[in-house]
Amino acid sequence: MPSKHINFSQSLLGFGSYILSKLENPMGIDDVWKMYQTDLLKNRYTAKHSFDNLMMTFILLYSINAIESKNGLIYKCN
Q1: What pTM does this model have?
Q2: Mean pLDDT in each 10-residue stretch from start to end of the chain (78 residues)?
Q3: DSSP letter (8 states) at residue 6
Q4: Where are the domains of the chain?
């Protein structure tokens, strides 16, 4: 049943924090998606997100200068 509240892991901000924690090395978008799918299957991340949510999260992270893109790879900004 829908409600006004969601868990942090279900939000784009929470998903963004997960992605940033995994970006120790530059990765492609497909690599990030595969890593997330693996973590989801192994219960390392509890919230299910769509690929569209992944893209919106990248847009959010890029807009706050948390990530940058070079040569098709995503880098975490310092």
Answers
A1: 0.89
A2: 80 96 95 97 95 97 97 93
A3: -
A4: 11-76
